Amino acid sequence: MPETNQDPLSQVINAVQGIYGRKDQAHDLEHALRVRAWGKQIGIQEGADLLIVELAAILHDIGRSGTLSKTHAESGAALAGGILHKCGYPEDTIEAVKAAVLSHSREGYEPETLEARILYDADKLDFVGPMGIARLFVWLGKEGKPFFGPDSCESFYRERIRHYHEHIHTQTARALFEPLFLYSENFWSELEKMRLKKG
Ligand SMILES: [Fe+2]
Ligand SMILES: [Fe+2]
Predict the structure, then answer these.
(1) Percent of the chain having pLDDT more than 70?
(2) Given phi > 0 = left and psi -120 to 50 = alpha, else beta, which region is 22?
(3) Is the pLDDT of residue 170 over 70?
(4) If one looks up domain 10-198 in CATH, what number appears?
(5) How far is the CA of 32 from the centre of ligand 2 (A)?
């Protein structure tokens, strides 16, 4: 069974540290740990199995930049299974975590359990508000995307993030999402004003 340290999940965190160290800063271990914190907060309110939620959050993005034939969620679920086996978790825990990781992004899998829905929601909460804005620019900036125009930071916000609220599953996450989303909306309208000033 997993070691009992200060943080009962430290063994898993240690196992993923190196993997996340190779990811972009918007999808690093810090992101995973923020998603864990959101997940825990939502999970307590929604009466979820917190172990599943927290493990899934810590592991959810380890598959990014994996093989091109798989989505990052598919790669992540497979990698997560291997790590949890090594850490000695029971089979039912591993399967529940894998299912949540598999359906955390909109890539063909719908979250079917409460814990999977909470992971999905928690991940979206880290893409709104000040942290969401910072992540958006660090991620897409690294990929060379411009601030405005087609295939830009702004278009990603307008076309993707702006629609997240349509897919949030839990009542608790919806309440947490709202003020952060308004912050993002305000940021983009202020930025648009700055942009117009230039011309
Ligand atoms: Fe992801
Ligand atoms: Fe994520």
Answers:
(1) 94
(2) alpha
(3) yes
(4) 1.10.3210.10
(5) 6
Domain definitions of the chain by residue range = 10-198
The label of the residue with tokens 């975590």 reads 97
Whole-angstrom distance, CA of residue 54 vs CA of residue 47 = 13
Q: How far is the CA of 45 from the centre of ligand 1 (A)?
A: 23
Q: Are 190 and 135 in contact (CB under 8 A)?
A: no
Closest ligand, as measured to the CA of 31? 2
| Distance from Cα 192 to the centre of ligand 2, integer Å | 27
**Number of the ligand closest to the Cα of 35:** 2
pLDDT on residue 66: 60
Give the pLDDT confidence of 127-136 residue by residue, as tens digits: 999 999 999 9
Predicted local confidence at residue 64, as pLDDT: 85
Distance 60 CA to ligand 2 centre (A): 6
